[in-house]
């Protein structure tokens, strides 16, 4: 999904910096690139692109990475916080079973990464105004009957609350902050892990009001809306991109 956000922003004419703990992660999930790296794909579109490897849960690494972006591009106008995921064993991630170690991993990957990037980028966004889009999940608003994603959802719920508070704080500086809460989206990573996690199945798709799983373009379209002037008076909001999934119970 992060790659798709980067490609859409580049197609719109933005110079793009990608900061990831592993810039070659796509190969591990069978995602085929059109160039050697994602930054190379973006350069082929005709924009400047920068790839930086850093652990975004570590504040010092984040500050160093953001400083490098500013040295390269001179400014920051848009921040998309896409890092994270339900990266611990879901069989052990319920409200009762989650270990302290797994909770620390989930909150570091999903919440701390967001806070660190927002704090590091805010001074640059405030110079001329800008936009922050934080990626949440519908798991912040609902769960399955086994509460398999309780701690992942809790971490993203923290992102939701943090985003609203940040929108209040940055609003006077003409910086808007919103969330996107995706549902079951068929990313390459979800497809690779679907069988082992009982995710993105046909039965689950049939239970969604729109009767299909989400595609990456569904999320990217909302991102484009939120970073554009079409949403110039929208801040502190969360848009669910889930086909109506949160309207029904399975």
Automatic annotation (TrEMBL):
CDD domains: SDR_c. Gene3D superfamilies: NAD(P)-binding Rossmann-like Domain. GO terms for biological process: fatty acid biosynthetic process. The keyword Nucleus does not apply. It comes from the Bacteria. GO terms for molecular function: oxidoreductase activity, acting on the CH-OH group of donors, NAD or NADP as acceptor; quinone binding. Keywords: Oxidoreductase. The keyword Oxidoreductase applies. Belongs to the short-chain dehydrogenases/reductases (SDR) family. PANTHER family: 3-OXOACYL-[ACYL-CARRIER-PROTEIN] REDUCTASE, SHORT-CHAIN DEHYDROGENASES/REDUCTASES FAMILY MEMBER. This is Oxidoreductase. It comes from Hyphomonas chukchiensis.
């Amino acid at each position: 999904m992060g790659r798709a956000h980067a490609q859409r922003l580049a197609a719109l004419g933005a110079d793009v910096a990608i900061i990831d703990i592993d810039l070659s992660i796509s190969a591990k999930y069978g995602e085929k690139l059109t160039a050697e790296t994602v930054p190379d794909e973006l350069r082929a579109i005709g924009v400047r692109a920068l790839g930086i490897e850093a652990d975004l849960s570590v504040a010092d690494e984040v500050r160093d990475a953001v400083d490098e972006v500013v040295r390269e591009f001179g400014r920051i106008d848009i921040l998309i916080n896409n890092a994270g995921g339900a990266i611990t064993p879901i069989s052990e991630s319920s409200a009762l079973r989650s270990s302290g170690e797994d909770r620390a991993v989930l909150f570091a990957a999903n919440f701390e990464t967001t806070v660190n990037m927002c704090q590091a980028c805010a001074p640059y966004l405030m110079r001329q105004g800008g936009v922050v889009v934080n990626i949440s999940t519908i798991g912040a608003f609902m769960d399955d009957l086994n509460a398999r994603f309780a701690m992942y959802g809790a971490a993203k719920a923290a992102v939701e609350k943090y985003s609203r508070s940040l929108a209040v704080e940055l609003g006077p500086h003409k910086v808007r902050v919103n969330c996107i809460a995706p549902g079951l989206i068929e990313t390459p990573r979800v497809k690779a892990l679907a069988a082992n996690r009982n995710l993105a199945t046909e039965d689950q798709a049939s239970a969604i009001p729109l009767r299909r799983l989400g595609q990456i373009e569904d999320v990217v379209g909302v991102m484009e809306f939120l970073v554009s002037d079409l949403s110039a008076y929208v801040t502190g909001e969360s848009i669910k991109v889930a086909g109506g999934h949160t309207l029904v119970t399975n």
